[in-house]
Amino acid sequence: MAEEAKWYVVHTYSGYENKVAQNIEKVVENRKLHDLIPEVRIPMETVTEIKGEKTVEAEKKLFPSYVLVKMVLTDDSWYIVRNTRGVTGFVGPGSKPVPLSDREVEALGVDTGTQTVRTDIAVGDDVIMVGGSFDGMSGTVSALDLENAAADVTVSMFGRETSVTLPLTQLRKED
């Protein structure tokens, strides 16, 4: 096709994101419309929650009730997506879908996965170090680096305050 496929945002009923994506993909497969609708995505993020010594990773939807569809906008592709069970409509003024700009696609992280770390530890908390060379020592969190799942902890060593950077998995909040 001469026209390039662009990303569009489709609004769905709450909790129907996976079903809508599967149904669109099934119709595309059955009707062999890969040239019109090459990709359907549900923006997800991997969330790592660290509580005490337990680390749990989970996939969470970045935008509940929304599905991203990369398609060439024609009457056929619009009809297929719009009439999929669970779809309430396209995001855009009136009934005309508006494609995402390149900057919006990049900001949404459509082509890359994102990872988020969550922890019950905050700056100023007293913590006990578990494992590693500081095992059993206590200190105070002076900074958090959630991007790298680490924290700067101020500990008292040899009568001086010293800052050490440790992974969040080696820290446990003092009770």
From TrEMBL:
GO terms under cellular component = cytosol
CDD domains hit by this protein: KOW_NusG, NGN_Bact_1
What are the residue boundaries of the NusG-like N-terminal domain, all occurrences included? 4-112
The record, for SMART domains, names: NGN
Keyword Ribonucleoprotein found: no
Q: What keywords is this UniProt entry annotated with?
A: Transcription, Transcription antitermination, Transcription regulation, Transcription termination
Q: Name one GO biological process term.
A: DNA-templated transcription termination
The answer to whether the entry has keyword Transmembrane helix is no
Question: Source organism's superkingdom?
Answer: Bacteria
Write down the Gene3D superfamilies for this protein, in alphabetical order. Answer: 2.30.30.30, NusG, N-terminal domain
Q: Which NCBIfam families match?
A: nusG (TIGR00922)
Q: Which family does it belong to?
A: Belongs to the NusG family.
What biological function has been recorded for the protein in this entry? Participates in transcription elongation, termination and antitermination.
Name of the featured protein: Transcription termination/antitermination protein NusG
Which source organism? Ruminococcus albus
Per the UniProt record, the lineage of the source organism begins with: Bacteria, Bacillati, Bacillota, Clostridia, Eubacteriales
Q: Which gene encodes it?
A: nusG
